[in-house]
Specification:
The complex is a heterodimer. By secondary structure, chain A is mainly α. In chain A, about 65% of the residues lie in helices and about 5% in strands. Chain A has one domain: Transmembrane di-heme cytochromes, Chain C (Fumarate Reductase Cytochrome B subunit, Up-down Bundle). Classes of the chains: A mainly alpha, B alpha+beta.
């Protein structure tokens, strides 16, 4: 019987899952408007006009809750010299050769990179989204800016989606991770192996 | 709709060929607007309102003859009046009937994400089918002429249809029918170019050395063309663009970029799957036992 360490509080988990659900809905409705091959996805939202109406509101929900989450996790995501060392050995990490990796705090460098990608991309998505938000805000902007905003919005959404694909896969790949966000706890062995500095800080060992 | 379906040349979001069997039999049409003959009576605006059952709000005088001041969901065509002095001391009143140009390479159609909301008929008319419109406004970004307008009533995009309903049954557009000076004429595109050549020769004789036809090739030519007294300076005509084309920003995300980006996301998911079945998951169970 292994012992468990608290990693996320109920509030943190709820916050994460609101952002996650909003992202999935925004991504599906966004993909529907991104390429005709995905237009069928509008049916999940009640048809084309509804997908267009709901998408920006879902995006705003994602933005607001992400800001709350970013404030909570900001301090744990500062990039340190050890993170640079860890990043240099990303090949070993991917190939599951974890021996001798630098000690990791609450988050490893990969997680931190995703965090900062989101910190940059989500506000950019909000701002570029407002410029093309029909019928409320778009009429106030010149067409040239709308053209640019559409491209920026699509490109940044693509980068964010790729980041989230990696994020979801990493949670599946690294066994014992998902329960951190579903139950709030991780096994001591998991913490010791993947986040030793955080483990020592939490347990005093 | 049943009769039209065989005449469609392009329908956005359709990557396979549209019905093509009748395409050869359909003649490309064009509306020719001879600005040198226009007297600015706005009968075309009235005819457009009447035929299409449109009633714009009665606006306010903004100090110029333009009324309404801009295109809207209720005004699919407006006369734009500009007073210019091309030669010092010689005032010219250039009146341009603005509206959809019906581009052969329509930016609105390229930008539209909703299948069947914008179609291009084999005769060249670019038409909006508002029942499929989702109101995203992408057509506004695609159009090089700033024509489509989103309605505040129903959040759908509207513009001149070139009276596709009239043309389909062998009638000319309403504005053409009503024009008292025959400044607007309608027919096959070839005939309209021929007619324009006669007009241009006449204008040149009368001292307009730069008279010419406005049929911009940057958008593949248009099915609404102008005879301009000063074809070298189309900007004189209330900023008619000199060499319009679909913005490269629009082409960027309607061309190959989006399929490539979609592929990228798909590949990322596949990469994850194959990583899982080759490298496998990161387990810490052994250490757990040792503890």
């Amino acid at each position: 019987m292994s012992t468990f360490i608290q990693r996320y509080t109920a509030r943190e988990r709820s916050n994460h899952w609101i952002v996650a659900i909003a992202f999935i809905l925004a991504a599906l409705s966004g993909l529907a408007l991104f390429h005709p091959a995905f237009f069928f996805l509008v049916n999940l939202f009640g048809g084309g006009p509804w997908a267009r109406i709901l998408h920006p509101f879902i995006g705003v929900v994602m933005f607001l809750f992400f800001i709350a989450m970013a404030v909570r996790f900001w301090g744990h995501n500062r990039i340190t010299p050890a993170d640079r060392q860890w990043m240099k050995r990303i090949g070993d990490v991917v190939c599951n050769r974890d021996q001798g990796l630098p000690e990791v705090g609450k988050y490893n460098a990969g997680q931190k990179v995703l965090f900062w990608t989101m910190v940059v991309s989500i506000p950019v998505l909000l701002l570029s989204g407002i410029v093309i938000w029909q019928p409320w805000f778009a009429p106030f902007f010149p067409i040239g800016l709308m053209r640019l905003a559409v491209v920026v919005h699509a490109l940044v959404a693509w980068i964010l989606t790729l980041g989230i694909v990696v994020h979801i896969y990493a949670a599946i790949w690294v066994r014992g991770t998902v329960r951190a966000m579903t139950r709030g706890t991780v096994s001591e062995a998991w913490a010791k192996h993947h986040h030793r500095a955080w483990y020592r800080q939490m347990t005093g060992k | 709709m049943a009769l039209q379906s065989l005449d469609i040349l392009a329908r956005f979001a359709t990557t396979t060929p549209p019905p093509k069997v009748r395409a050869e039999a359909t003649i490309p049409v064009a509306k020719l607007i001879d600005i040198s003959k226009c007297i600015g009576c706005k009968a075309c605006q009235v005819a457009c309102m009447q035929w299409n059952d449109l009633r714009d709000e009665v606006g306010e005088n903004v100090g110029v003859y333009d009324n309404p001041a801009d295109l809207s969901d209720q005004s699919w065509t407006v006369m734009r009046f500009s007073e210019v002095e091309v030669q010092q001391g010689k005032l010219e009143w250039l009146i341009r009937k603005d509206g959809c140009m019906h581009c052969a390479d329509p930016g609105c159609l390229k930008a539209c994400p909703s299948p069947g909301a914008i179609v291009q008929y084999a005769n060249g008319i670019v038409d909006f089918h508002e029942e499929h419109c989702i109101g995203c406004g992408y057509c506004l970004t695609g159009c090089p002429f700033n024509i489509p307008r989103i309605s505040k009533k129903d959040s759908k995009a509207y513009k001149c249809t070139l009276c596709s309903d009239r043309v389909a049954v062998g009638l000319e557009p309403a504005c053409v029918k009503t024009c008292p000076t025959s400044a607007i004429v309608f027919g096959s595109k070839a005939d309209m170019i021929h007619h324009a050549e006669g007009r241009i020769a006449d204008l040149k004789e009368r001292g307009y050395a730069n008279a010419g036809l406005y049929d911009p090739q940057g958008v593949g030519g248009t099915h609404v063309m102008y005879v301009l007294q000063h074809a070298d300076q189309p900007e004189l005509y209330s900023n008619l663009p000199k060499d319009p084309s679909i913005s490269p920003l629009v082409s960027l995300w309607t061309g190959i970029t989006k399929p490539l980006m979609s592929l990228g996301i798909g590949l990322a998911v596949f990469a994850g799957f194959f990583h899982f079945v080759t490298a496998g998951p990161k387990e810490v169970e052994e250490e757990e036992k040792a503890d």
